Model the fold of this input.
Amino acid sequence: MSKDLLSYVGESGVIRLMQRFFPDHAHYVKKGIGDDCAVLETGGKDLLLVTTDMLAEGVHYTTKTTPYEDIGWKALAVNLSDIAAMGGTPHTAFLSIGLKSSTPVSILESFMRGFREMACEAGVFLAGGDTISVTSHSVISVTLLGRCSPEGLVFRSGARVGDDIWVSGFLGNAAGGLEILLRNEHKEEEGRQMLISSHQRPAPRLKLGKALGESGLAHAMIDLSDGVAKDLRHICDESNVGAVLDRGSIPISEPLQALARDLSHDPIDWALNGGEDYELLFTTLPEDRKKIEELTVSVMGRTAARIGFVVKDKGVWLRAGSMRTQLTHRGYTHF
Amino acid sequence: MSKDLLSYVGESGVIRLMQRFFPDHAHYVKKGIGDDCAVLETGGKDLLLVTTDMLAEGVHYTTKTTPYEDIGWKALAVNLSDIAAMGGTPHTAFLSIGLKSSTPVSILESFMRGFREMACEAGVFLAGGDTISVTSHSVISVTLLGRCSPEGLVFRSGARVGDDIWVSGFLGNAAGGLEILLRNEHKEEEGRQMLISSHQRPAPRLKLGKALGESGLAHAMIDLSDGVAKDLRHICDESNVGAVLDRGSIPISEPLQALARDLSHDPIDWALNGGEDYELLFTTLPEDRKKIEELTVSVMGRTAARIGFVVKDKGVWLRAGSMRTQLTHRGYTHF
Done:
């Protein structure tokens, strides 16, 4: 692979390159590149959160596996999840969309229906954007604004050695759902439908993110977009720590286990590397364990899953009995 | 043309369709879809301005006519121009970019160099974004935040019957520059180089926009991205008025006139329909004429050009002697 191509430097190299052009700090920017949202002081009591995601047809979505209505839902959901991961409350969206001029109007209507449904559920208003015609693949870019009190904010960088590591729900469901869709093995069966729905209509954990922020219990938080193996590494890198996950504690749903049996696949692979679950991963003091259980039960009706702990040594390990395996991140990476 | 395709409903139809899904007003949104920027109250003394533009390769830019460094400059400049048109001050940019993984690193570096140059000139900080790989044409989406005092804000909707109509500089230069590039008729000649530069490195009128906003003299303002014929219509639609332009007052530069002679083209066509000039168009009371001349001389070193006046009858006319021709907007339109 040629060293002077983006494919060689990879996604993180591309981000570092862009960051290198803006080495200075701006006093009003409490957080720039390197967290789920940028955090700005704009003069009000609350801080302004900003997140933006670009989605391209054939890379992030395809109508082969996701109807346009669900693409609209998801385009906003992935941004809402970033606001949730900071402990914030979303309020205003900007939607830019590039479509071929030969696109049926009904497709844009379906997209907007899904987008609005998610927006209504999250209390978000669409205040602008851009519409352009493109010559081939469609493209969507959503920028989402939110607010957060300075006290309620949770960064990726706060994890401390000894912290518990939690996730807000099952891992790998979205990857299982995608697998079913790609193999065209839908079946009229409740479990499989749930997995498909996890892929097509992820539910951002807004209430939980905010409650965790307000509680002051979470030291670090991130949303799981690329798979826990990759996203936990972001927490570790930013916090200058490492992490050990307990294989037996990774929450894998019954339907995912059933699918894994049917397809002779190890479900832990989907759970660790699958991505697009949009659950929250967060770290807290071990002495706050009971408080976290109570808080998550009160917000979600069930407890979050404690899946590991933070260590001093850099790296992310999976522990099964007395065996520790270092995880190389196989989550989704661009370039 | 089939009625159920985006090409039939057109760009304005697409925007109306999207707007239809969010019919309600949000109390904190002082301006949503339908101006150069969205205007939000976020609790501080100043209002928050937000604008976003999506650019696609082959539609908005091509390396055949614009080097990557200038594409980077321009991607930010077009957003800065939107902030200028509200009377605001830009501060924070978010850059999302989709490139093929086979793209040379040097191309991204060139792009970022131009982007940073424009950012430094405007005092703008890059605080985030997204980087994705795409399978064909590249795509850029910039979201820019700015601030403005409630008193300094200028909307599209404030034009009043009898107002003077002004533009901040020459019209059609960017279109002339593009024409030279497309015909590959560069020539080492100062005038042509100036036209090319108008196309490749437009200079957003930030100081002038802010000064006009603070002066309280401008009733309505817009930046000229799609050509005066189309953009003036936005002012008229939002203000519920019409406009008459004086053909003889349209400021056409010497180099553009020379180019027009060489190519046997009517330069007024470039001036009215060319687009991408990124000059400001604004309306003011006739009794403030002298103040506007003084203000523009003090900010730009030369006076703005008074090109027409606001009338009650809907429509945009071009007047030459006793002849009035209604302008159909031929500026750039998507879909």
About this structure: The two ends of chain A are 12 Å apart (CA to CA). Chain A has two domains: 34-152, 156-326. Chain A touches chain B through 80 residues (CB under 8 Å).
